[in-house]
Amino acid sequence: MSIRVLLVDDQPLLRLGFRMILSTSPDLEVVGEAGDGAQAVAMAAALGPDVVLMDVRMPVADGIEATRRIVGSGSAARILVLTTFDLDEYVWSALRAGASGFLLKDVQPAELVGAIRSVAEGDAVVAPRVTRRLIDAFAGHLPDPSAGPSEADVLLDRLTGREREVLVEVARGRSNLEVAAALSLSEATVKTHVGRLLMKLGLRDRVQVVVFAYEAGIVRRGEP
């Protein structure tokens, strides 16, 4: 079955470019295009896409608000946001709104296609460069470890030592293959650990792992 994609961007030429890229993959089908966030919400409800390729800065309603509305409606659509370095604050807000992936707008066509497939399968994609920028941007807002146990600490106590190690690697923006190499595990084992830690922490996907890690202070500026 083909993956149904909704393109959302206020620039028609960019939508055309994305459509041309996706048209080269027989398993991807562009089911609609929206020029602003409000249209995106309406078309997501009407068309039931598997993946929404979402721009951030748009008129009427931006990509963050559109993401919040789509996720809040209970839609099964997964949101893949395209961003640029100078929009870090929007990235964080969209993560909190429920986006399932983030790529930079200079992404290569093959990477874009692969990311859409991954998101459609229930995984999540966060460009490592975006992850590193987020760490730098929000390091000053991380919790004070001297403040005592938090709700995050209680949740972390549910994890095994190995699951904690996997959590840290995922929070740094690494893929399952990269985590496997770093921890000398098989990729299948890493995938199993990721599934278990998601369940124990009550998280939906890898993007929420990144949010959780930043808010809990697990990953800090200056760490590799």
Overall description:
- There is one protein chain.
- The chain is of the alpha/beta class and 224 residues long.
- It has 11 helices and 6 strands.
- The chain has a 6-stranded parallel β-sheet with strand order 2-1-3-4-5-6, sandwiched between helices.
- Strand 4 (78-83), helix 4 (88-97) and strand 5 form a beta-alpha-beta unit.
- It starts with a strand and ends in an 8-residue tail after the last helix.
- Mean pLDDT is 82; it is low at 139-145.
Biggest sheet details: 6 strands, parallel
Q: Spans with pLDDT under 50 lasting ≥5 residues?
A: 139-145
**Total helical segments:** 11
Strand order of the largest sheet: 2-1-3-4-5-6
Topology:
Blueprint: E1 3-8, H1 12-23, E2 28-34, H2 37-47, E3 51-54, H3 63-72, E4 78-83, H4 88-97, E5 101-104, H5 109-120, E6 125-126, H6 128-138, H7 151-156, H8 161-171, H9 176-183, H10 187-201, H11 206-216
Parallel strand pairs: 1-2, 1-3, 3-4, 4-5, 5-6
List keywords for this structure.
52% helix, alpha/beta, 224 residues, 6 strands, six-stranded parallel beta sheet, globular
Short description:
This protein is an alpha/beta fold and 224 residues long.
